[in-house]
């Protein structure tokens, strides 16, 4: 996951449908972004956030998928899908409470420009639960 501990918007602060079923969090980091910002975010995701989230029992069970989409100018969209909306609150708490690694610079982790939550109405793929509403 992309590294951010300072974003002002959080998944829990957005309107969302707390009904049963998968939800997707879409984080947008507007480009252009410098190579230094991208490297810091990549490191945070790879070395701090990814391991933290994947070792948490609830997230391990509720996590469906992650996609990080990036353009050449650094514009990035992070898409996280989990089995229910309450899991997003756990995810947000873990991200916001994770301690920076030695050498990480919070000024290089500005957080997303936007964060939106969507109810998944259709999802297909190998290894993911099929959803159709």
From TrEMBL:
Q: Which domain of life is it from?
A: Bacteria
* Residue ranges, annotated region (Disordered): 1-23
Q: Where is the composition biased (Polar residues)?
A: 1-12
Name the chain's protein.
Uncharacterized protein
Source taxonomy: Bacteria, Bacillati, Actinomycetota, Actinomycetes, Nakamurellales
